[in-house]
């Protein structure tokens, strides 16, 4: 009988732990670093491919303005990606809503990487706006 009660208590504890763990929501997309809210597009844009690979970014937002956008690890050709990532600075200093609507020209010679970066930014900002509501 004691063994049966012990097993039941253990099962109840496991069920409680599982319930509590599933109730905790973690969002790997939106985090904070210091005073900035950071949007990581890695899991949002796995299907957004540049020339050779996904091109995720981290978007830093403070006071509803973009302060920085950093490209994350990718397998694009470094020579061309260096050129493409220059477009990211065009979003800096803009409000989130304005940046989400911007039409930025891609970089000649790195068009696919540029377009993928722009899609990452747009998707990340749209996600941020939905979470804010």
Protein architecture, described:
This protein has 133 residues and is of the alpha+beta class. The chain is 43% helix and 17% strand. It is built from four helices and four strands. The chain has a four-stranded antiparallel β-sheet, covered by helices on one side. The protein is elongated and about 75 Å long.
Helical amount = 40-55%
- Indicate the mean pLDDT: 86
Order of strands, widest sheet: 1-2-3-4
Instruction: Write down the overall geometry.
Output: elongated
Structural key phrases:
4 strands, 133 residues, elongated, alpha+beta
Summarize the structure.
The protein has helices spanning 2-23, 78-84, 96-101, 111-132; strands at 30-33, 36-40, 57-62, 65-71. The protein has 133 residues and is an alpha+beta fold. A four-stranded antiparallel β-sheet has the order 1-2-3-4, with helices on one face.
What is the secondary structure topology, with strand pairs?
Blueprint: H1 2-23, E1 30-33, E2 36-40, E3 57-62, E4 65-71, H2 78-84, H3 96-101, H4 111-132
Antiparallel strand pairs: 1-2, 2-3, 3-4
